[in-house]
């Protein structure tokens, strides 16, 4: 029997792959998507890292833990008295899983609606063929049968997995990566975190709010080196006040897992030997691209030295009609970047001329206060020798932030010294994740800081801080 043929086969149904499949189907192509993920209930699911063990479950736990902290510590200021506040961890995890199930089920619905065939199993390139590329789909459940399909176009969207370190065997009980750390069944009394990156800070915050004594060990001498230095300085101050114990410039040595504890030997920034004894340890030291068993060699593709699939600005590999997107290629490992690349590739296949400005991809860290930025940091602009003017405005001078009881942080706008074009916007404060969207729009339209300063913003709202920071570029903030 001849292989089934599709115009487009996507390998991987994370935010990159499932969005690529939907956009390709919207453009009239016959589309299949290969996906192998099995959830803890032994059900095959779509959505990849983001929906199953990434963005969505982590934000659910951040929200639950934030409510817990609010009730326990911040309602008294409003004159609200509470007593005997408890958290039921099993219920919190059940809520998280319900959200995940709803979202992954939603993608199944979207696949049906857009007539996308879900090929259940692991996809491997077998060979180039006249009609395109042959891909084997190896079942991961007994009920499914192996099959080989032919694709005129292939989009590799196989994502990434947690990087593990030698000498730190992850069992997702005592020593966990993101998967285990999203499902602790009890609140560890003492929690260690290796790596003060995005996962370390977000999940460290979750368990600290729920009662853990959290110690973070970071190898780099500088905290949050990718963020604007002013924001990073404010962040470490705020996290320290909350009780997150962050140690930078450390060298982690031997890690020993006992029966119920983990001992971490490390050298601190002053060269002193230290020992950290914890109930659980999270290892969050970055992620590596997924290309195992993909059969790239069978079609003449290779990864670069770091394991990424090399692509150009339009996510084209060196082979005709083979594209790669999301965490498996260069650029930030972010769900919205993967999604935008998915749309871009589907449109390239359709002969359109899409474009992504990678400088306009926002970053958000969902701590409290939230941290978000787009464009260049002050230190990057200085290194490039570009002349700029900064404008900054604090949430402490904003009535809405005060009313909401969360007035830490600021917005900072960096604009070109001559043209006033906005070059970067940095927010640390309440709802930074939403506030940054205005800056992204402004930068995509090459707006000047004066443009944001002249636009009417609702009062009272947190967005007024963005406007005041823009006005402050010319030192004409109205409430400063
Ligand atoms: P993935 O989501 O990793 O999906 C790849 C899919 O491919 C998987 O489902 C995998 O099973 C499948 N696959 C791999 N190989 C094969 C094969 N051979 N055959 C069939 N299927 C295969 N990003 C944000 O923007 N915001 C956040 O708030 C955020 N929070 C995060 C929190 C955590 C704890 C983690 C771990 C990540 C977070 N991220 C966040 C990052 C985000 O999850 C990733 O950038 C995003 O999931 C990448 O999408 P992707 O489609 O490239 O890959
Ligand atoms: P990360 O790259 O953000 O941070 C890893 C940290 O570990 C770095 O600060 C690094 O210096 C440190 N490190 C590396 N090796 C170390 C060692 N041996 N000892 C001590 N420290 C060490 O990686 P993380 O936190 O694992 O997250 C992976 C990716 O997932 C992120 O880069 C991001 O792309 C994505 N993500 C995005 C989120 C968001 O958008 N809100 C949330 C969570 C993850």
UniProtKB/TrEMBL annotation:
<feature type="active site" description="Proton acceptor">
    <location>
        <position position="459"/>
    </location>
</feature>
<feature type="binding site">
    <location>
        <begin position="158"/>
        <end position="160"/>
    </location>
    <ligand>
        <name>FAD</name>
    </ligand>
</feature>
<feature type="binding site">
    <location>
        <position position="59"/>
    </location>
    <ligand>
        <name>FAD</name>
    </ligand>
</feature>
<dbReference type="InterPro" id="IPR006258">
    <property type="entry name" value="Lipoamide_DH"/>
</dbReference>
<dbReference type="Pfam" id="PF02852">
    <property type="entry name" value="Pyr_redox_dim"/>
</dbReference>
<dbReference type="InterPro" id="IPR001100">
    <property type="entry name" value="Pyr_nuc-diS_OxRdtase"/>
</dbReference>
<feature type="binding site">
    <location>
        <position position="327"/>
    </location>
    <ligand>
        <name>FAD</name>
    </ligand>
</feature>
<dbReference type="InterPro" id="IPR036188">
    <property type="entry name" value="FAD/NAD-bd_sf"/>
</dbReference>
<keyword id="KW-0676">Redox-active center</keyword>
<comment type="similarity">
    <text>Belongs to the class-I pyridine nucleotide-disulfide oxidoreductase family.</text>
</comment>
<dbReference type="InterPro" id="IPR012999">
    <property type="entry name" value="Pyr_OxRdtase_I_AS"/>
</dbReference>
<dbReference type="InterPro" id="IPR050151">
    <property type="entry name" value="Class-I_Pyr_Nuc-Dis_Oxidored"/>
</dbReference>
<dbReference type="InterPro" id="IPR023753">
    <property type="entry name" value="FAD/NAD-binding_dom"/>
</dbReference>
<feature type="binding site">
    <location>
        <position position="286"/>
    </location>
    <ligand>
        <name>NAD(+)</name>
    </ligand>
</feature>
<feature type="disulfide bond" description="Redox-active">
    <location>
        <begin position="50"/>
        <end position="55"/>
    </location>
</feature>
<dbReference type="GO" id="GO:0050660">
    <property type="term" value="F:flavin adenine dinucleotide binding"/>
</dbReference>
<keyword id="KW-0285">Flavoprotein</keyword>
<keyword id="KW-0520">NAD</keyword>
<keyword id="KW-0560">Oxidoreductase</keyword>
<keyword id="KW-0963">Cytoplasm</keyword>
<keyword id="KW-0274">FAD</keyword>
<feature type="binding site">
    <location>
        <position position="218"/>
    </location>
    <ligand>
        <name>NAD(+)</name>
    </ligand>
</feature>
<dbReference type="GO" id="GO:0006103">
    <property type="term" value="P:2-oxoglutarate metabolic process"/>
</dbReference>
<protein>
    <recommendedName>
        <fullName>Dihydrolipoyl dehydrogenase</fullName>
        <ecNumber>1.8.1.4</ecNumber>
    </recommendedName>
</protein>
<keyword id="KW-1015">Disulfide bond</keyword>
<feature type="binding site">
    <location>
        <begin position="333"/>
        <end position="336"/>
    </location>
    <ligand>
        <name>FAD</name>
    </ligand>
</feature>
<feature type="domain" description="Pyridine nucleotide-disulphide oxidoreductase dimerisation">
    <location>
        <begin position="361"/>
        <end position="470"/>
    </location>
</feature>
<dbReference type="InterPro" id="IPR004099">
    <property type="entry name" value="Pyr_nucl-diS_OxRdtase_dimer"/>
</dbReference>
<dbReference type="GO" id="GO:0004148">
    <property type="term" value="F:dihydrolipoyl dehydrogenase (NADH) activity"/>
</dbReference>
<keyword id="KW-0547">Nucleotide-binding</keyword>
<dbReference type="GO" id="GO:0005737">
    <property type="term" value="C:cytoplasm"/>
</dbReference>
<feature type="binding site">
    <location>
        <begin position="195"/>
        <end position="202"/>
    </location>
    <ligand>
        <name>NAD(+)</name>
    </ligand>
</feature>
<dbReference type="InterPro" id="IPR016156">
    <property type="entry name" value="FAD/NAD-linked_Rdtase_dimer_sf"/>
</dbReference>
<feature type="binding site">
    <location>
        <position position="123"/>
    </location>
    <ligand>
        <name>FAD</name>
    </ligand>
</feature>
<dbReference type="Pfam" id="PF07992">
    <property type="entry name" value="Pyr_redox_2"/>
</dbReference>
<feature type="domain" description="FAD/NAD(P)-binding">
    <location>
        <begin position="6"/>
        <end position="342"/>
    </location>
</feature>
């Amino acid at each position: 029997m001849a292989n089934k043929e599709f115009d487009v086969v996507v390998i991987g149904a994370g935010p990159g792959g499932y969005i690529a499949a939907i956009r390709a189907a919207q453009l009239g192509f016959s589309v299949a998507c290969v996906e192998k993920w099995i959830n803890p209930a032994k059900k095959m699911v779509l959505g990849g890292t983001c929906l199953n063990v990434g963005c969505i479950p982590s934000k659910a736990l951040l929200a639950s833990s934030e409510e817990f902290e609010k009730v326990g510590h911040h309602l008294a200021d409003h004159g609200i008295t509470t007593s005997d506040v408890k958290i039921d961890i099993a219920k919190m995890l059940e809520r998280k899983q319900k959200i995940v199930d709803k979202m992954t089920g939603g993608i199944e619905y979207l696949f049906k609606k857009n007539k996308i065939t879900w090929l259940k199993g692991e996809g491997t390139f077998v060979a180039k063929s006249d009609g395109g590329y042959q891909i084997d789909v190896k079942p991961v459940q007994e009920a499914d049968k192996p099959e080989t399909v032919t694709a005129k176009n292939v989009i590799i969207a196989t994502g990434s997995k947690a990087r593990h370190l030698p000498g730190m065997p992850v069992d997702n009980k005592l020593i966990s990566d993101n998967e285990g750390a999203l499902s602790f069944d009890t609140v560890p009394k003492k929690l260690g975190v290796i790596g003060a990156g995005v996962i370390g800070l977000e999940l460290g915050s979750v368990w600290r709010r729920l009662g853990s004594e959290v110690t973070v060990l970071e190898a780099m001498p500088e905290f949050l080196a990718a963020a604007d230095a002013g924001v990073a300085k404010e962040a470490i101050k705020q996290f320290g006040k909350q009780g997150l114990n962050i140690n930078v410039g450390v060298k982690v040595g031997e890690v020993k897992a006992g029966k119920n504890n983990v001992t971490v030997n490390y050298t601190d920034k002053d060269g002193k030997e230290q020992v950290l004894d914890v109930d659980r340890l999270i290892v969050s030291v970055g992620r590596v691209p997924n290309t195992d068993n993909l059969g790239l060699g069978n079609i003449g593709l290779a990864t670069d030295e770091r394991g990424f699939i090399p692509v150009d600005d339009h996510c084209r590999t060196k082979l005709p009609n083979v594209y790669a997107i999301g965490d498996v290629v260069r650029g930030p490992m972010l769900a919205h970047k993967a999604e935008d690349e998915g749309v871009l590739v589907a449109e390239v296949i359709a002969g359109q001329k899409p474009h992504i400005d990678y400088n306009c991809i926002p970053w958000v860290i969902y701590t409290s206060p939230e941290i978000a930025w787009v464009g260049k940091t002050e230190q990057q602009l200085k290194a490039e020798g570009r002349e700029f003017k900064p404008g900054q405005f604090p949430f402490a001078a904003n009535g809405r932030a005060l009313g909401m009881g969360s007035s830490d942080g600021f917005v900072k706008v960096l604009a070109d010294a001559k043209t006033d074009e906005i070059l970067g916007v940095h927010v640390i404060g309440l709802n930074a994740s939403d506030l940054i969207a205005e800056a992204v729009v402004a930068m995509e339209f090459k707006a000047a800081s004066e443009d944001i300063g002249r636009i009417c913003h609702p009062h009272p709202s947190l967005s007024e801080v963005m406007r005041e920071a823009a006005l402050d570029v010319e030192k004409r903030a109205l409430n400063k």
